[in-house]
Design a protein that fits this description.
GO terms for molecular function: glutathione transferase activity. One of its GO terms (cellular component) is cytoplasm. Pfam families: GST_C_2, GST_N_2. By secondary structure, the chain is of the alpha+beta class. Among the domains are: about 100-215, Glutaredoxin (3-Layer(aba) Sandwich); about 230-390, Up-down Bundle (Glutathione S-transferase Yfyf (Class Pi), Chain A, domain 2). The protein is built from 15 helices and nine strands. It has a five-stranded mixed β-sheet with strand order 5-4-3-8-9. It has a two-stranded antiparallel ribbon with strand order 1-2. Strand 4 (about 140-145) and strand 5 (about 150) form a beta hairpin. It starts with 12 loop residues before the first strand and ends with a helix. About 35% of the residues are buried. The structure holds glutathione.
Length: about 400
């Protein structure tokens, strides 16, 4: 384990423990000798313990204090139960009030999202597939250095690409300020997605599933005829959602935010048991409920598209990569290639958001390189899943094209 600590001593010769060959190994210098000579950490280290590794008691002290600080920060980031399992707090503004369902186009609604967030991503996909862009403008926030959502300015929508920009509804600097504008104020979590009523200055809903159900069912002027939750499939969709939410959508967070080995073991086992079951189901079924894309697919997709990009590495979902699951990988490409879906997937923003924001999981703040199999080009390769549809083609999606 000491090989990484040795980077402090690059350019010197030093013994490498951990089963490396005996003797002294010459490491290639990455910094110039003048910069390493002036590096204060290196200078202090050399004064205190010469060119060897830090002494054992120091290592133990640092390890103890880092571990205490880590547990403290994780408790703020991810509330957990006494066994160390992550328990996600529910949104403060659930189900969309009836008045919006009755006359959706009479209200001036605005959607707040962040591109790394899988829950917000659901709302962008359904908004796009239902052609609701003219009815529901969007403001894209970016994670600030403390992890809260901020509006960086600029234009926000670049030739159809969704990129972080200003608050186009209220001109605020942070999402917390927008929540704070509602009558009665707000001191809870300022989360995305959030649907805002511009005239009433009120949060309509900040629970992603309730928002996508609303986008799907409300009769907005000009919306596409696509129904992602047909009445005859409602029960099946609910059953899939139950499995997918706790084991997969929230399951990856339960792995990444686990605060004990036991909690992680349970979460990772449930995640991969569910993924194995889904892999098998999708070997004979084009989508979760047969030939028809539903809200359950949208919810599964936003986790799968992030899997090899972030969850596999950062959240320790390491048993398999999505790439090793041919049906799940083909299914992800199939949905990615539905017209308008790829435009909602900002792969760079997803990587930046997770690796740069979740400081306790990535304290060095180094963002790994994007896996080539996750790039747009690979996701656009043929998936050959049309043959699983009984009618050969996907009629439902063609309705909205
Ligand atoms: N239950 C919510 C969860 C939303 C959520 O947790 N969003 C995260 C981003 S992925 C967030 O905004 N976190 C900011 C915070 O907790 O302060 C939903 O499904 O809409």
């Amino acid at each position: 384990m000491w090989t990484s600590a040795s980077s402090l001593f690059l350019g010197t010769t030093l013994p490498l423990p951990c089963g490396r060959p005996k003797g002294r190994v010459l490491l290639r210098p990455r910094m110039s000798s003048s910069s390493s000579a002036t590096d204060p950490l290196t200078t202090v280290g050399r004064l205190l313990w010469g060119r060897s590794l830090p002494p054992g008691p120091l290592v133990c002290a640092v390890r103890f204090s880092w571990s205490a600080a880590w547990h403290f920060m994780m408790r703020q980031l991810a509330p957990s139960d006494p066994a160390g399992s992550y328990s996600r707090p529910s949104g403060a503004f659930r189900s969309v009030p009836d008045r919006y369902l009755r006359n959706p186009s009479t209200a001036r609604l605005h959607l707040y999202v962040g591109l790394p967030c899988p829950w917000a991503h659901r709302t962008l996909i359904v908004r796009a597939l239902r052609n609701l862009e003219p009815q529901i403008p969007v403001s894209v926030a970016a994670p600030g250095s403390d992890g809260s959502w901020e509006f960086p300015g600029g234009r926000g929508i670049d030739g159809g690409d969704l990129i972080p920009g200003p608050d186009r509804a209220n001109g605020r600097r942070t999402l917390r300020e927008v929540y704070g504008m509602r009558r009665g104020g707000y001191d809870g979590r300022a989360t995305v997605p959030m649907l805002w009523d511009v005239e009433r200055r009120e949060v309509v809903c900040n629970e992603s599933y309730d928002i996508i159900e609303f986008f799907n069912s409300a009769a907005f002027d000009g919306s596409s005829g696509l129904d992602l939750s047909p009445p005859e499939l409602k029960r099946e969709i609910e059953e899939w959602n139950r499995v997918i939410y706790s084991n997969v959508n929230n399951g990856v967070y339960r792995c990444g935010f686990a605060q004990s080995q036991e909690a992680y073991d349970v979460a990772v086992n449930e995640l991969f048991t569910a993924l194995d079951m889904l892999e098998s189901h999708l070997s004979t079924s084009r989508y979760l409920c047969g030939d028809v894309l539903t809200l359950a697919d949208v919810c599964l997709f936003t986790t799968l598209i992030r899997f090899d990009l972030v969850y596999n590495v950062l959240f320790k979902c390491t048993k398999k990569k999505l790439l090793e699951c041919p049906n799940l990988h083909g299914y992800t490409r199939d949905i990615y290639q539905i017209p308008k879906v790829a435009e909602t997937c900002n792969l760079e923003a997803i990587m930046d958001g997770y690796y740069h924001t979740l400081f306790p999981l990535n304290p060095g703040n180094i963002r790994p390189v994007m896996p080539s199999v996750c790039e747009n080009q690979s996701l656009s390769e043929p998936h050959n899943r049309e043959s699983l549809s009984s009618n050969g083609k996907h009629r439902q999606i063609h309705v909205s094209e």
